[in-house]
Specification:
This is DUF5011 domain-containing protein. By secondary structure, this protein is mainly beta. The chain binds beta-D-fructofuranose. The site of beta-D-fructofuranose has 12 residues, from strand 1, strand 7 and strand 16.
Length: 549
């Protein structure tokens, strides 16, 4: 773990070594941003799930800290009856929790799954003023039995089931370490999961509901979101369920969040329900969607019946998942996601680390003719990484019919930079495609293209020609109307590309591993157009410093 490895991102967070996935418990506390995350302290694959921890004073330079919540070493005997959706009658969950299939393994542990952190300013929970309180999902497996036997007489083994429960832990040392509350008994036990889906009940994201002076905790259970509320932070009452009303296959919902946001330019608050869906996102596999409505203290009320039927998507690339926002950043909604996709995460072979975070993004809720939507931009703090603007030497591209014209940029190349490019064209001369080629090889044969196709009105990111061993599809997003110009802000790092289209109206995030035989030969930048004429009204490159120092 030197932060210098060939595909190590230089201005996106990753753990020095080992596996990470979802960001958890993002919060600003005492001038410091805390990022916890799903982490395997022991290996470079998913497992031993714990909360890793990093801190930053500027959202950009992160320093890795010790593991904040290790997988649980507690190994209490569980003993409860539950009828899940698969059972005809209640079954007896009896035995030691374990996270591997050897149920009687005395070293069985409970995994610390995703969740959130809040700041208890007023000592509502009684652990002291300004205590950080974490809510997470405790996950374990346990044998289920057919009868009420004692510990010594175990009855007939019916099988092994996964259990997910919502637990609480608190930190009185500013997030370094957490104590598990109530001998790690859950604050919401699995026996209270409204859907009876014991193995899919997770990812509590607690938020304060100012209007009703209470805390709200959305938790997913399979294909619905259950809302719980509390006034003392310890006792949680089920209030309502939000059902899925659109078809994205059978993927479960994960990492729900209810985000109160001011509509830009007004004083009005709306509630945004954001969700990660494991399957069925626009680019295939995992992705993030959102719905806009109101919250009445008990129920999320979507703006219309159509709202839940037509999800809006936060990102159209393959790699923006499990994003959640920071707490305690008044007036700013800052979201960070895991830059991957459960569909092909196993094919990403970086070592000795696995998994990177996106740039933190500031979200704004805007209203226009077509209704409410979120706009996104990297937080302004990212600008400090810029080493200055270089004007790129490209003004017009005239490409003959059926041919592509490429203009190589001579005075700018690299693997960690931002490129801003505004293109415009006349309707009757519109090219078939136009855009930029990033991470191009010297001979121009390998590259990642980010471009626009005026006939289909799609912005696309083409990762199929960069020589990767994992061949991925094109990802794309359709723009509204019939534009004759487009603005791209593209953040390129050693193994990722984030594209913000038209000031963050649409975003595409993609990990890339160009040219594995010769990664150093993938630094070129070029502009291109095919069959038509385009004017480049602005073209600026900015090299970015490494955050690893
Ligand atoms: C989302 C997720 C969560 C879960 C965590 C486990 O990526 O599957 O639902 O809590 O990862 O690591």
């Amino acid at each position: 773990g030197s932060y210098q490895e060939p595909y190590r991102n230089q201005y996106h967070y990753s753990a020095k070594q080992n596996w990470l996935n979802d960001p958890n418990g993002l919060i600003k506390y005492d001038g410091v941003y805390h990022m916890f995350y799903q982490y395997n302290p022991q290996g470079n694959e998913w497992g031993n799930m714990s909360w890793g921890h990093a801190t930053s004073t500027d959202l950009v330079h992160w320093k890795e800290q010790d593991v904040a919540i290790p997988e649980s070493d507690e190994n209490a005997w569980v003993d409860f009856w539950m009828k899940t959706k698969d059972d005809a009658k209640p079954v007896h969950y009896l035995g030691r929790p374990t996270t591997n299939w050897d149920v009687w393994n005395p070293n069985g542990k409970r995994y610390i799954f995703s969740g959130s952190v809040i700041l208890d300013k007023d000592n509502v929970a009684g652990f002291g003023k300004n205590t950080l309180i974490a809510y997470y999902t405790s996950t374990y497996q346990v044998a289920v039995r057919d009868d009420d036997y004692s510990k010594d007489q175990l009855g007939n083994l019916l099988g092994i089931r996964e259990v997910q429960e919502q637990n609480m832990a608190y930190s009185t040392d500013g997030g370094k370490t957490f104590k598990k509350y109530n001998n790690q008994n859950p604050v919401i036990p699995v026996t209270q999961v409204p859907t009876s889906d014991a193995g899919n009940f997770r990812d509590p994201k607690v938020v304060y509901d100012e209007a009703n002076k209470q805390w709200v905790m959305p938790v997913v259970s399979g294909q619905e979101v259950d809302l719980f509320t509390s006034t003392n932070l310890k006792d949680w009452t089920f209030q309502s369920a939000i059902k899925r009303a659109h078809d994205v296959g059978n993927g479960v919902w994960e990492c729900p969040e209810l985000i109160p946001m001011k509509v830009k330019g007004t004083n009005k608050t709306k509630w945004v329900l954001s969700l990660s869906v494991q399957q069925g996102a626009p680019a295939g596999g995992s992705g993030m969607q959102y719905f806009i409505g109101n919250f009445d203290g008990k129920k999320f009320i979507p703006d219309s019946d159509e709202t839940m039927k037509n999800p809006q998507w936060l990102d159209f690339g393959e790699d923006f998942y499990a994003g959640v926002t920071f707490g305690e950043t008044p007036g700013r909604t800052i979201m960070l996601g895991w830059m991957s996709n459960w569909n092909y995460v196993g094919e990403q072979k970086t070592t000795p680390w696995h998994g990177e975070m996106t740039l933190p993004r500031e979200l704004t809720l805007v209203r226009d003719n077509s209704g409410y939507s979120l706009k996104q931009a990297p937080v302004k703090e990212v600008n400090q990484l810029s080493q200055g603007e270089t004007a790129l030497d490209v003004r017009k591209i005239h490409a003959r019919a059926q041919s592509e014209k490429t203009i190589d940029i001579k005075n700018f190349s690299g693997t960690q930079y931002k490129v801003s490019a505004d293109f415009s064209w006349k309707k009757n001369q519109a090219p078939n495609r136009l855009g930029v080629k990033l991470r191009a090889s010297e001979d121009g044969s390998k590259y990642v293209a980010v471009g626009y196709d005026p006939s289909s009105k799609q912005v696309y990111l083409d990762r199929t020609k960069d020589g990767e061993s994992i061949t991925r599809q094109n990802t794309k997003v359709k723009l509204d109307g019939n534009p004759t110009n487009i603005k791209l802000a593209v953040y390129v790092d050693t193994s990722s590309i984030e594209v913000f289209v038209n000031n963050g109206e649409k975003v595409l995030t993609q990990v890339v591993y160009p040219n594995p035989e010769q990664p150093s030969d993938s630094k070129g930048l070029a502009f291109f157009a095919e069959s038509g004429k385009v004017t480049i009204t602005r073209a600026v490159g900015e090299h970015f410093e490494s955050i690893w120092g």
